[in-house]
Amino acid sequence: MECNQPKPLIILIGPMGAGKTTIGKLLAQQLGFTFYDSDQEIERVSGASISWIFEKEGEVGFRQRETRVLDKLTQLDHVVLATGGGAVTIAENHHFLKRGIIIYLRAEVDIQYERTCRDRNRPLLQIDNPKQKLTELFCKRDPIYQQLADITIVTGHSSPKKMVHDILLQLQDANITV
């Protein structure tokens, strides 16, 4: 009798601008997995942009949609999933995230700011001092990211391909078969 083992699910967490989508696509390609970005999936399912959802429903409405999408996506296997930066702020999501191997892409605030300062599709940063907001979010969320992470990779200093290589090495070193 053949036993069907589920394929691993790799979940990328971290702040906006850490490179979750870029790294996630490359990692999925390297592993032959399917890539999903939870924010893109929220937009696809709802037929509305993240900015519009924030404007009409606020962050609470967005987080409710995000939780539903995370529950569905984390039930898939053979997947690399890039999550939104704030997904970890909802305790219910922790249960869903723990269905996979959690990789924290840790980016310092200066790196985040450099990568996001011109992006108008980041509702939380459409304020007078986005760098201060990034600092506040980092201070609040970094301990949660660290608590949830199976592996932490510091971003901003290596090429995306090198980071994917480092992730694969760490998975191997941790005896995680993908």
UniProtKB/TrEMBL annotation:
GN (gene name): aroK
Intracellular or extracellular location(s): Cytoplasm
Chief localization: cytoplasm
Gene Ontology cellular-component terms listed: cytosol
Single biological process term from Gene Ontology: aromatic amino acid family biosynthetic process
Protein name per UniProt: Shikimate kinase
Subunit structure: Monomer.
Top-level division of the source organism's lineage: Bacteria
Presence of keyword Transferase: yes
Annotated binding of ATP, by residue: 17-22, 122
UniProt source species: Moraxella tetraodonis
Annotated HAMAP family: Shikimate_kinase
